[in-house]
Predict the structure.
Amino acid sequence: MGADWAVLAERAVTLARSAVSEDHYIAGSMAPIADCYRPDLSPPNPGPLHAELAEVLKVSGVDILLCETFPHIEEGLAAAAAALDTGLETWLSFTAGPEGVLLSPQAVRAGAERAVKLGVSAVLINCTCAQKTAPYVAALADLGVPFGAYANAGQAGQGLGWGSDVDGPERYADLAEEWVALGATLIGGCCGTDARHIAALRSRFLGQTSRR
């Protein structure tokens, strides 16, 4: 974003805050420095850069720092540590990528265990193919913190997200039923989902999952 990145981040938080009621939470997103789907590009010492963004988001007024879409366990933990240093509530979400090949459920479990020891308040899996998300949700159970998923709705041919017909959001919610049955209480949507998917989830799970 160039030299104005901090100003733009603050403006983004202001716009988000102005668009919702006072009882809504605003999460500040912290993502991989290089690429969400290229863990091989993760830098050797990502902590200082994540710390810069975390501090700007805190000063801008977010309620939660969401370290998300990390396919590299160590960078995800470094981002979470930087976020926790601000004193804000911190969530960490890993990704296995749209094809579900970048991380195994076992690797996500191991990373989530370390994240909980660091002090994160929730662990999640995101931007992983919705049809392949359930094993990752199962891997996050019994860690002592809330957990959940917001999946990638996949290609148009899968009938869930991009270019899908009117039943796509409901089919996505059908898959989310599996996540909730596994104990997930934080449910949402990532790439390929839109307001229709969130409405379907809200209708399906209102009162069952966290309002966050």
User: Anything to note?
Assistant: The first strand starts at residue 27 and ends at 30. The first helix runs from residue 5 to 18. DSSP finds seven helices and six strands in the chain.
